[in-house]
């Protein structure tokens, strides 16, 4: 699964990367330990241009009776998107990009798990494939939420975890965001493991296990304990 990630760039760098020039996000700041349930940066396409906004991490389907279901839908398996009621319609028409420059996962088992930071060798921003939906509470409060799509791990990631987030090739991002594309058979081939040779990983402090820790120490390399 994907349960923590980072986005440490400035807002200006983020806007430049995704061709957005008139976005104002007063609450934006670099994040070193993004966690489920938090507001996260996401990109959608409104039919004319990319738009940046905030979505709460943990998808709440529009038909859900209770918002607590969002904590069970942090990730969506790419293999079953078209089969699951919570993801079927978003897969067809509510797709988003979730920008990141790394994600965390834990290597090992039992009490001896080593947190690892995984990123592109180029250290550039990348786009995790996501879905979003908007839920309205009984009191009329609208909450927009998202989930990160996962796939089987590539060769590098298999040593850490059996699943990894879907990282879209840059040239395929516009295809994923294109709301006119509703044929899931055409979209499914995009949801592949990212090439191992373009990625790297290194061990980091167990501080990342605590959501209250959100600073540069989270991404500092340490000696591998395993």
Automatic annotation (TrEMBL):
Protein name: Abasic site processing protein
EC code: 3.4.-.-
Record carries keyword Protease: yes
SUPFAM superfamilies referenced in this protein's UniProt entry, alphabetically: BB1717-like (SSF143081)
Family from the record: Belongs to the SOS response-associated peptidase family.
Keywords on record: Covalent protein-DNA linkage, DNA damage, DNA-binding, Hydrolase, Lyase, Protease
Gene3D superfamilies, alphabetized: SOS response associated peptidase-like (3.90.1680.10)
The keyword Glycoprotein is annotated on this UniProt entry: no
């Amino acid at each position: 699964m994907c349960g923590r990630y980072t986005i440490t760039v400035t807002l200006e760098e983020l806007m430049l990367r995704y061709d957005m020039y008139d976005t104002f996000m007063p609450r934006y700041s670099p994040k070193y330990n993004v966690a489920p349930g938090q507001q996260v940066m996401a990109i959608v396409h409104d039919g004319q241009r990319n738009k940046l906004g905030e979505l709460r991490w943990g998808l709440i389907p529009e038909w859900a009776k209770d918002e607590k279901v969002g904590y069970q839908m942090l990730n969506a398996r790419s293999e079953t998107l078209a089969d699951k009621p919570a993801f079927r319609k978003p897969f067809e028409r509510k797709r988003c990009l979730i920008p990141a420059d790394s994600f965390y996962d834990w290597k090992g088992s039992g009490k001896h798990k080593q947190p690892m930071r995984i990123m592109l060798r180029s250290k550039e921003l990348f786009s995790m494939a996501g879905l979003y939906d908007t839920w309205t509470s009984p009191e009329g409060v609208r909450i927009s939420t998202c989930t990160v799509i996962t796939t089987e791990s590539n060769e590098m990631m298999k040593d850490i975890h059996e699943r990894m987030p879907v990282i879209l090739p840059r040239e395929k991002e516009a295809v994923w965001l294109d709301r006119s594309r509703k044929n899931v058979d055409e979209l499914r081939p995009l949801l592949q493991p990212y090439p191992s040779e373009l990625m790297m990983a290194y061990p980091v402090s167990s501080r990342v296990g605590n959501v209250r820790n959100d600073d540069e120490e989270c991404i500092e390399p340490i000696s591998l304990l395993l």
